[in-house]
Amino acid sequence: MRRMQPVVSDTDEDTERVHLNLLRRSSPGRRLGLALSISSTVVGLSRRGLARTHPGLTEDELALLFVERNYGRRLADDLRAFLITRGS
């Protein structure tokens, strides 16, 4: 199997090898838990960044902006229309 080289890494090869071996030996549940945790952290950081750069937006506006930035304008527009319809 060909090993992919990271573009930038601050981890030395021995440490990376140990880390990958630990991940490979982990149960699927453990790996899923790690992936979900990392994903949650990234979403939280993204939302905080949006709130910091757009301080005048409401929580709903920030949520729609998050959807637009991560999933596209069309989905954000569809969600906005759905929320307006649901609120009527």
Index terms:
single chain; 88 residues; mainly alpha
Brief summary:
The protein is elongated, with a radius of gyration of 19 Å.
Number of helices: 4
SS class:
mainly alpha
Reported for the largest beta sheet, the result is:
none
Query: Uncertain segments of ≥5 residues (pLDDT<50)?
Result: none
Cα separation of the termini: 56 Å
Which bin fits the share of residues in helices?
Answer: over 70%
β-strand amount: under 5%
Shape: elongated
Describe the structure in your own words.
- With 88 residues, the protein is mainly alpha-helical.
- It has a domain of 42 residues.
- It is built from four helices and no strands.
- Helix 2 packs across helix 3.
List the helices and strands and how they pair.
Blueprint (H helix, E strand, L loop, with lengths): L12 H13 L2 H26 L5 H13 L1 H15 L1
Helix pairs in contact: 2-3, 3-4
